[in-house]
Amino acid sequence: MKRLFDRRRVLNWFLGGSTFAWLGSVIYPLLRFLSPPPEQEAAISSVKAATLSGMAPNSGQIFKFGRKPALIVRRPDGEFVAFLAKCTHLDCVVQYRSDKERIWCACHDGFYDLNGTNVSGPPPRPLDALEVHVQGDDVYVTRKS
Amino acid sequence: MSTSPENPERPLLAWVRDRYPIAQFAEWAKHKTVPIGPGAFWYYFGGITLFLFFIQVGTGILLMFYYKGSADTAFESVRFISAKVPFGWLIRSVHAWAANLMIFSVFIHMFSVFFMRAYRKPRELTWLSGIVLLALLLGFGFSGYLLPWNELAFFATKVGTDIIGVIPVIGEPIMYVLRGGEEVTGSTLPRFFALHVALFPALLTIFTAAHLFFIQLQGIHEPDAWKAHPEQRKTMPFFPHFFMRELLLWLITLNILAVLAVFFPAELGVEADPFSPAPAGIKPEWYFLSTFEFLKYMPAHVGPMEGEEFGLLIISLGFLLWCLVPWIDRGRGRAMTTIVMVTGMAILIFLTILTYLGFVA
Q1: What is the pLDDT of residue A1?
Q2: Nearest of B164, B176, B189, B360 to residue B274 by alpha carbon
Q3: What are the structural domain ranges in chain A?
Q4: Secondary structure element (H or E) that encloses residue A141, with its range
Q5: Domain annotation for chain B: domains and CATH numbers
Q6: What is the mean pLDDT of chain B?
Q7: Mean pLDDT of B81-103
Q8: Which residue in the set B161, B187, B296 is minimally distant from A36, CB to CB?
Q9: What are phi and psi of A47, to 5 degrees?
Q10: For testing the chain B interface, which of A107, A112, A118 should be mutated: the one with the most B CBs within 10 Å?
Q11: Which of B45, B59, B79, B253 is the 20 to 30 A CA-CA neighbour of A62?
Q12: Displacement of CA B3 from its chain's centroid (Å)
């Protein structure tokens, strides 16, 4: 019967373990190198997205919300709504379709209603909503509190 | 000094022959044969793919003399190549068209190998290395598509990398590494550039060498019928008979390439703007159209899974089965062979229809 701790076996374990550790110490920095450090998200609290006079009812426009594209829509009734403009399907930037009064993603023909709810096509979830405040002529958008 | 090819004592030849065993090489080339038969035409497509790869290396190096791989400069540098550099438009168009033709010819090559059942023992590894090569070529297409940094490419990359992110557990980290962050930004471009001009060419060279080495060791697959009827066996010498025919086809390919590049030059479109909505009618390159169409038809949810997850699962399973074809059909039973061949035909028709639908959509 082979002994559990004969010299060859111990040496093999030692050698195998060292190889493993060595590989780890080579591969780990490489993997970490490939994955970039997270970028500092600018602390966006409020962005001026549009003006009352500059946006007719039943229209929409893209604005920068920090580093992300966002969409502000003036509904046909004159109310404003805003969302992050990132389609929940595969990440494309959505746009407002005034002919259908819906938010549309051109990539795979997905539609959202004006509450941001996915209503047709492949999007699996509603859009991330933002909060809109009107101050005088200016329309400000903030994160949902 | 005579220049007659029959004269073995040409000084240069003699010089080489004195130093290297080229006689052995000539002997080997003389004995290498290629089967002749109804399927013989398809044997040329592997070589055509190789030729197009040479074109890609050449034109790719030329483009790198002018291309500037950062988000601020990429689009302008490609515009400069197309508009200002003498024959820049031609080099760029040849590069773009050769990429398309290469993927087209590699698909023909793969399906012809499949329908000739050339994947069977002992050629399993040739099949697998071929699939790796196909994946690499698709990777070349995908990474190269982003480099001009135009709107179409930007959104295609967003969608393509997001699809990778759907894969459970490993998808998100891979997507993060590919994008160089959470989103497709200027940080993504140098990564794709590095993949396109350094990593993928290196891998492609290694796997092409392995692929050719396997073929060299085992010879070219001969039709199954010849085993039962050896008297039907007909071959031609690889050199010069097959070689010259292949060269002629390369020349024809080059001409087709030139005509396409001149009459349908590669477009540039508008510069990518991460803050503009995806343009209407956005589509990937034709070789990703079937996947694109397939995912488009997925509903938002299938059971507990999101539609895209489900679609991706189906595609991955299909791909896995495709890799395992040599082990599924080992040529032991007629029934299994028929099932595999019919399934292969169905896949081919399915992909063609989806690609067509994507094209006209």
Answers
A1: 55
A2: B189
A3: 1-37, 46-142
A4: strand A138-142
A5: 37-219+235-271 (1.20.810.10), 285-361 (no CATH)
A6: 91
A7: 95
A8: B187
A9: -130, 135
A10: A107
A11: B79
A12: 41
Note if the bond before B265 is cis, omega within 30 degrees. no
Q: What pLDDT was estimated at residue A2?
A: 63
pLDDT tens column, B278-302: 888 788 899 999 998 898 888 878 8
The whole-angstrom distance between B360's CA and the closest CA on chain A is: 14
Measured between beta carbons, the chain B residues lying within 8 angstroms of A89 are 308
Rg of chain A on CA atoms, in Å: 27
Looking at the complex, report in whole angstroms how far the Cα of residue A10 sits from the nearest Cα belonging to chain B. Answer: 35
Give, in degrees to the nearest 5, the angle at Cα B30 between B25 and B32. 95
For residues A120 and A110, the answer to whether their CB atoms sit within 8 Å is yes
A97 Cβ contact partners less than 8 Å away, ≥ 6 residues apart:
A103, A104
Residue with tokens 């509450």: A115
A28: amino acid identity, one letter = Y
Q: How far apart are CA B37 and CA B199, in angstroms?
A: 39
Task: Report yes or no: B150 and B271 within 8 Å, Cβ to Cβ.
Answer: yes
Instruction: Look at chain A and count its residues.
Output: 145
Mean pLDDT of B59-78: 95
| Neighbouring-strand partners of residue A134 | A139
Contact between B337 and B325 (Cβ < 8 Å): no
Residue type, B308: E
Rounded Cα distance between B292 and A107, Å, is 9
Nearest to B285 by CA among B55, B99, B59: B99
Residue B144 Cα, gap to closest chain A Cα (Å): 20
Between CA B38 and CA B25 the distance in angstroms is 30
> DSSP E strands: which ranges in A1-125?
46-51, 59-65, 68-74, 80-84, 95-97, 102-105, 110-112, 118-120
| Cα–Cα distance for residue pair A75/B265, rounded to 1 Å | 43
Q: Which has more confidence, B55 or A91? A: B55
Helix, strand, coil percent content, chain B, rounded in steps of 5: 70, 5, 25
Predicted model pTM: 0.86
Chain segment A38-83, per-residue pLDDT in tens:
876 666 778 898 888 899 999 999 999 888 899 999 999 999 999 9
Secondary structure in 3-state letters for B39-104: CHHHHHHHHHHHHHHHHHHHHHHHHHCCCCCCCCCHHHHHHHHHHCCCCHHHHHHHHHHHHHHHHH
**What is the token pair recorded at B87?**
């024959």
* pLDDT confidence bin for A104, thresholds 50/70/90: very high
B41 at interface of A, judged by CB pairs closer than 8 A: no
Domain A46-142 belongs to what topology?
Answer: Rieske Iron-sulfur Protein (2.102.10)
E strands in A100-137 = 102-105, 110-112, 118-120, 129-135
Residue A40: predicted pLDDT: 67
